[in-house]
Amino acid sequence: MLDKIVFYFFAGLAILSAVLVVTRRNAVHSAVFLVTSLLATAGIYLQLQAQFLFAVQIILYVGGIVVLFIFVIMLVNLDVALHQVQFNRQWWLAILLALVLGAQLAFAFAVTARNPSALAFAEGRAARLEPNTELIGQALFRNYLLPFEIASILLLVAMIGAVVMGKKRI
Amino acid sequence: MIHSLLEFFEPHLLPLIYALVIVLVLPLVAGYIVLLERKVMADMQVRLGPMRVGPHGLLQPIADAVKLLLKEDIIPENADVWIFWLAPLVSVTAAMLAMAALPFGPAFQIADLNIGLLFILGISSMGIYGIVLGGWSSNSHYSLLGALRSSAQLVSYETAAGMALVSGLLLAGTLSLRQIVEIQQKQGLWFVFLTPVGFFIYLVASVAETNRAPFDLPEAESELVAGYMTEYSGFRWALYFLAEYANMVVVAAIATSVFLGGWLRPLASVRAFDFLDYVPMLLLLLVAGYCFWRTPRQPVRVQQGFLAAVGLLCLLLAAALAAPIFVAPQLKPAVHGGFWFLLKVFCYIYTFMWLRFTFPRYRFDQLMRLGWHFMIPVAIVNVLGVGVALVLERQYGWGLGPALLVTALGTLAVAAWLAWVGERTESPVVGGA
Q: Are A28 and A70 in contact (CB under 8 A)?
């Protein structure tokens, strides 16, 4: 019971603030609601016993990326943005995508209505998730070392590329 | 119904009480840190500092708090009211929430989290929002510039601080602050002796992270009036101040837990130094004696009474600290642990004050160059060094001490090289830019 209340609170908060991110005219307000949405998602991670993911979500997204967003927003002139058209007119594409998503959800509902266990996740045992950080570390550095290193190098390349493109003279 | 509610809350009762204690006591502590800072500053500048309110100015924080609460609350005309209202709250909440995972002693900790240190780092990184949003919503150039400087500084130095903590984590092998302290107890050696370079980097980075001199550029009064809180007054300003001092306590507590042995007594594993257990009691007895000695010399009746009350309080605390030695030895870790932890935290904060009144302020480009060209590379090399030392110990059978010594010397060599290169390539900015 309490689990459900907590989940619907965080999920509702995440969706509501995500909608507000899109509809606010002031970009700083949008960024604040983006933070709320990310924090609510972090709360759901915490409820799923994924403590490490919770911490990383807050440190990286809330404490890092959105701060850079706000940094950029403050440096541009907000008055110009206030007078521009807020939404672009791509109705048909949006409707198409919404239909695809709706069809997927309807399919999932239909399947689970007939057979409730068809799409159920494997039951995670709480004992297997503890200690969370150590388990993730072992998974990343033992079982998935090569993909992990490839991803790190990709990120490094992207970072260096951004610096090279951003600077006129190195 | 009530019974089931009680049953639900029962395991959470103690943490709730702890949380309440922290929320209630922290403003008082912050006020007295401010008083201590003014007294230390006065001492270093050969003055007396606040002397009027209460004996030796002991009631000054109360007077300041009352003044701030009664001041007019001004909101600038073109400010973004909601965000202006929200920003100081974000700062204070982040600072206070971070305390949830700190072990103030073996018995006093709200929650021992598996991700303890990550939790504290994440929550305190949210404190940036208080500063950035406050500076932006004030709709003032000084505030905005202060906020931009501050966020740039925090983002840069957070990396160095995080890397410095990683070197401690490598030695401990856990993120839970309680376990980090227990491992230091088991090894009989604080991590500051195992990775002094990491501790030094954390010390410098934590000064920068709390926006204090010599890195207090976000509020450099000669350039920016008061930085991001220029437009704030009264209670909201007090909230910012509270957040700043709470952050100092948080970084000091992190450094104490990770590097300085947390609640452990100095030389806790050496039997010959057990006489140090008497130090807390004797220290407080000394303070109490001083208070009673000064009581008749106070000019006013009220001040005499207050000083005598302070003396009595010290006597009571001394009795509390003496009880584990003479009466109830099972209470010793809890009571004495709390004492040593707070003592270390205050020594760390005293170092902050000492630095503030000793060094002149950096220029902003110097600050950034120091952060990115020196602190972060040295912190990364230090992490590598500690890692190599651990491999040498576990795979090749070296002693941990010699291995760490070799890698620390290597790290210092790299640091010296970086400093040398930095000095050679530093472009003359004055007049040029």
A: yes
**Cβ neighbours of B86 in A, within 8 Å:** 32
Cβ pair B125:A51 closer than 8 A: no
What global pTM score does this model have?
0.85
Tell me the backbone φ, ψ of residue B224, rounded to 5 degrees. Answer: -125, 20
Q: A133 with B115: CB under 8 angstroms?
A: yes
Give the separation between CA B229 and CA B89, rounded to whole angstroms. Answer: 13
Query: What is the arithmetic mean of pLDDT over B254-259?
Result: 90
Give residue B415's pLDDT band: very low, low, confident or very high (50, 70, 90).
confident
**DSSP single-letter state for residue B28:** H
Residues of A near B (Cβ–Cβ under 8 Å) read 26, 28-29, 32, 35, 51-52, 54-56, 58-59, 62-64, 67-68, 70-71, 74-75, 130-133
Question: What's the rounded Cα separation, in Å, for the pair B195 and B382?
Answer: 8
Write out the two tokens for B80: 């973004």
Q: Which of A35, A55, A67 sits opposite B118 (nearest CB)?
A: A55
Could you say which residues of chain A have pLDDT below 70? Answer: 77-79, 81-82, 86, 118-130, 170
Chain A residues within 8 A of B83 when measuring between CB atoms: 28-29, 32
Name the closest residue on chain A to residue B121, using Cα atoms: A59
CA–CA separation, B424 and B166 (whole Å): 30
ipTM of the complex: 0.77
- Looking at the complex, does the CB of residue B148 fall below 8 Å from at least one CB of chain A? yes
pLDDT of residue B433: 38
3-state class percentages of chain B: helix first, strand second, coil last, to nearest 5: 75, 0, 25
With beta carbons under 8 A apart, name residues in chain B contacting A159.
Answer: none
- Residues constituting chain A: 170
Q: What is the CA radius of gyration of chain A?
A: 21
Tell me which residue in A29, A70, A131 faces B114 most closely, judged by beta carbons: A131
Which chain A residues are Cβ-neighbours of B144 within 8 angstroms? 74
Interchain pair B147, A62: CB under 8 A = no
Question: Percentage of chain B with pLDDT > 70?
Answer: 96
What rounded mean pLDDT belongs to chain B?
83
Q: Do B115 and A35 touch (CB under 8 A)?
A: no
Distance from the Cα of A54 to chain B's closest Cα (Å) equals: 9
Beta-carbon count within 10 A of B152 CB: 18
DSSP string, A46-78: HHTT-HHHHHHIIIIIIIIIHHHHHHHHHHS-H
Task: Judge whether residue B274 has pLDDT over 80.
Answer: no
